[in-house]
């Protein structure tokens, strides 16, 4: 397939697309959708505002022609959207797309793993911040224990999906779980990625003091394990990976706060209602849903996307400490996905 490679103002190509398929979630993780801010009266997007699967497929095909090689489905909780395997199937048939992944909290994974695998999904990232039921229930704001997530992970592996685990670490909340999670994942051959608590959105009360940095977590791990650094597998790989010595198990860090990686950021994000965001921390989306619904041709859509990417100059994490940046309008993580 003929691809046109487009680059932004900092010479970064467009390679990845993260698609949020829904803004709702069955959990209320403190660091993402705190229950007191996302209560029963919170107004989520109406169904008519969400991109249909046909619209997502159409936009994805255009993104692939413009260089995208990987698509990640996320949310909100993507498995709350009805018939996700149908969307996965549509996307898996796109010529030129190398990889499709899904990020989920795992609660509904046991139910859908086989259908997702049969639809063409290769990999899932499952979020799990603690193995302690009580603490996990407190973090997820719904008092749900770890069992459904662990069952989901088990099922996903049984049906042949690749599984990685994401753990957001927040000081004073789940730092005590760093070593138990590392041990569990190592013993079960699962890649665990520690994610630094980020200042996404404006509802999670982020403070720098709450961040446990990659270096701090690494130092804790080093007290228990011998680790060997691995080279990045490709340009723009987000996680920095290490291997437990004498094993084939890796552990990674997503250090967006302490060691930013904007210079190799090749990701565009598409919100559930069809807005393109060029950075996790850029509050200004570019509508594409209405453009599509008003009858734009594929060529016109491609031109619009190329223009948006061509104008991109985001490097928020590189500039995080600037006062103006900390106070700027930001979009919620649940709205555009991780
Ligand atoms: N609901 C799905 C899940 O939790 O995996 C997908 C959406 S969630 C927004 C995507 C990822 O973002 C999850 O791994 C989650 O832990 C992470 N995340 C959410 N808020 C975060 C924050 N403030 N800092 C760092 N990571 C965050
Ligand atoms: Fe839901 Fe995922 Fe956000 Fe937790 S991190 S509230 S599971 S969207
Ligand atoms: Fe990419 Fe923005 Fe994150 Fe930098 S801050 S890595 S530009 S999403």
Tell me what you see in this structure:
The chain is built from 11 helices and 12 strands. By secondary structure, it is α/β, with parallel strands linked by helices. It has one domain (about 15-335): TIM Barrel (Alpha-Beta Barrel), CATH 3.20.20. A 12-stranded mixed β-sheet has the order 7-8-9-6-5-4-3-2-1-10-11-12. The protein is globular, with a radius of gyration of 19 Å. The structure holds S-adenosylmethionine and iron/sulfur cluster (2 copies). The site of one iron/sulfur cluster (SF4) has 12 residues, from loops. One iron/sulfur cluster binds near residues 32, 77 and 334.
Chain-wise SSE layout:
Layout: E1 16-20, H1 53-65, E2 70-74, H2 84-92, E3 99-104, H3 109-118, E4 123-127, H4 133-139, H5 147-158, E5 162-169, H6 178-187, E6 191-196, H7 214-222, E7 227-229, E8 240-244, E9 250-254, E10 267-270, E11 275-277, E12 286-287, H8 289-293, H9 298-310, H10 323-326, H11 333-336
Parallel strand pairs: 1-2, 1-10, 2-3, 3-4, 4-5, 5-6, 6-9
Antiparallel strand pairs: 7-8, 8-9, 10-11, 11-12
The protein binds S-adenosylmethionine and iron/sulfur cluster (SF4) (2 copies).
S-adenosylmethionine (SAM) binds near residues 200 and 333.
